Amino acid sequence: MSEAPDDAAPLVLSVERLRKTYGDTAAVEDVSFAVRRHELVGLLGPNGAGKTTTINMVLGVLEPSAGSIAIDGIDLARDRARALARTNFAAVYAPLPGNLTVLQNLRFFGRIYAVDALESRIERLLERFRIAQFRHTKCGLLSSGEQTRVSLAKALLNDPTLLLLDEPTASLDPATAQDLREAIRAIARETNGGILWTSHNMYEVEEVCDRVLFLSHGRILLEGDPRELPAQHGAASLEELFIRVAREPLDFNTGVR
Amino acid sequence: MNLTRVGAIVVRQFYLMRSSPTRVVPLFAWVAIDIVLWGFIARYLDGATKGGPNFVTSLLGAVLLWDFFTRIMHGLITAFLEDVWSRNFLNVFATPLTITEYVAGLVVTSVLTSLVGLVAMLALAGGVFGLPFATYGAAFVPFISILFLFGIALGIFASACVLRFGPAAEWLAWPLPALLSPFAAVFYPLSVLPSWMQWIAHAMPPAYAFENMRAIVAGNAASPGGLAIGLALAVGYIALAFAFFVRIHKSAVRSGLLARYSAESAG
After folding, report:
1. Nearest Cα to Cα of residue A12 among A179, A242, A187, A153
2. Mean pLDDT score of chain B
3. Is A125 helix (H, G, I), strand (E, B) or coil?
4. Residue A114: which of B2, B89, B253 has the nearest Cβ?
5. What is the count of residue pairs from A and B with beta carbons less than 8 Å apart?
């Protein structure tokens, strides 16, 4: 867990009454939440709960049917480029182009984000994620763990105020995942931003996140401290609570949006 | 428009070419082979029809200009397809990059890669087959400009189609220039076309370039009015193609197609 976030810390992400429908089907329904500076928030839920749909809307690649998103106080719909300049992401389903080397990918995305002093920034990130030895290796030739570290380096290029991590530890071995969790905790501590994280690994969520949001059928059903929530709802662990929320979502319709 | 971001799209293409000869060779190889093939055909026809039309100037000149147009279009769609092939849409479009900057980057990439092909064609056609560029005079500039602008427009349109219909639509995009070639009157005057085809041809900017090229080769003057119409049409098509791309992109963002692009359909 990162240092306890201050409740008065500025909001880096504010999502208000977000909704996404495809025809008659609601993928996300009336979702509101916020992420504060230095806060690490877990977005949890079973497959198809609406986590990635929510993240795609925050990233501006999916238009909400209703609701608003503000990143660092900037309305995404009105000032997309300025809002996304303060954001970055890493997702297991969005690997960097495998036909470019690590250095080429970081230079390409560094220019897209118009990063100042790009070369020195890249060098620091290569060192931080211990990928300097792969700088001239094509990303497609790297192992899953190495590719994830490169994706994280890319995600930190612009020193984002809001960092979105969609299942960053999926497909990693336990040791590599542990290293990555430590790196992400350090990011939350040291940088000026907040992190929204999705994961299916309840152990790591409990270890890493300051707060979690349980999403099911496109709605947020529970919200709170991952170390306190299980006891509050009569569950032995976060994993048991997750399974109950996934199987019996109506039992948790607590009115949390 | 942020030029650093436009430059990023261009630099990415440079990185890909630097490490991949298979991307560099097509820039000049196929157009060079075309010039060699048509150069010998024109030379043969010149010998077989002594006192007839100058085939090197008319036929080879037409091939050169048409290949330049095709390369411009293919240069743009290839740069776009690099993002399709590497499944990079999410990474690229979830950034501050605007659609204008993205398309501008594709256009600059296409200009630079097409220049390589143009230089190779000019060197071969002039140096080996004696294509007399001086014959075209100053009109060579509007010829090239019309074909360049329309090639850009067609490339943007084709990219929008691939974005809309999915990766497999690239097979519809590649032959688009060939689909238009009968109407562009590359090798024959517009007058040989039936009237319904002539109507369509008059809406095709390349037809104005090739009609004027033939007029010059026949010893007549180029029509400034015709070239101006060709240029105006080409600029208009760029505006239409860009508006079409923006519309398709917005629709893809609304429907979820962009976020799930490799699935080819958001439905």
Report:
1. A187
2. 89
3. helix
4. B2
5. 87
Residue A176 backbone dihedrals phi, psi, to 5 degrees: -65, -40
Per-residue DSSP letter, B120: H
CA atoms within 13 A on the CB side of A18: 31
**Chain A interface, mutation test: which of B3, B11, B15, most A Cβ atoms within 10 Å?**
B15
Do B90 and A98 lie within an 8 Å CB cutoff?
Answer: no
The answer regarding whether domain A11-86+161-252 maps to CATH 3.40.50.300 reads yes
Q: What is the pLDDT of residues A145-191, one digit of tens each?
A: 889 899 999 999 999 999 999 888 887 788 888 888 888 888 888 88
**CB–CB of A111 and B253 under 8 A?**
no
pLDDT < 50: residue spans in chain A: 2, 255, 257
Angle between helices B140-165 and B205-217 (to 10 degrees): 150
Supply the ipTM of this predicted assembly.
Answer: 0.88
For position B265, what pLDDT does the model report?
42
Write down the pLDDT at residue A33.
94
Q: Which amino acid is at A91?
A: A
Specify the pLDDT at position A252.
64
d(CA A21, CA A218): 10
Q: Per-domain residue ranges for chain B? A: 3-263
A112 and B86 within 8 Å at the Cβ level: the answer is no
Q: What is the pLDDT of residue B253?
A: 93
Distance CA A230, CA B2 (A): 49
pLDDT tens track for B181-234: 999 988 899 999 999 999 999 999 999 999 988 888 888 888 889 999 999 999
Residues of B in contact with A109 (CB under 8 A): 8, 91, 95
Distance CA B229, CA B234 (A): 8
Least CB-CB distance to A61: which of B4, B82, B259? B259
Contacts of B92 in chain A (CB under 8 A): 112
- CA gap B85, B20 in Å, rounded: 15
**Best to test chain A binding among B5, B80, B91 (most A CBs inside 10 Å):** B91
B228/A129 Cα distance (integer angstroms): 57
CB of B17 less than 8 A from some CB of A: no
Alpha carbons A187 and A165: distance in angstroms, whole number: 12
Asked if A107's CB is within 8 angstroms of B11's CB, the reply is yes
- Inter-axis angle of helices A118-128 and A144-155, to 10 degrees? 140
Output phi, psi for A222, to 5 deg: -140, 155
Answer yes or no: is pLDDT of B267 > 60. no
Option in A61, A81, A96 nearest B253 (CB)? A61
Give residue limits of the domains in chain A.
11-86+161-252, 98-159
Global confidence as pTM: 0.89
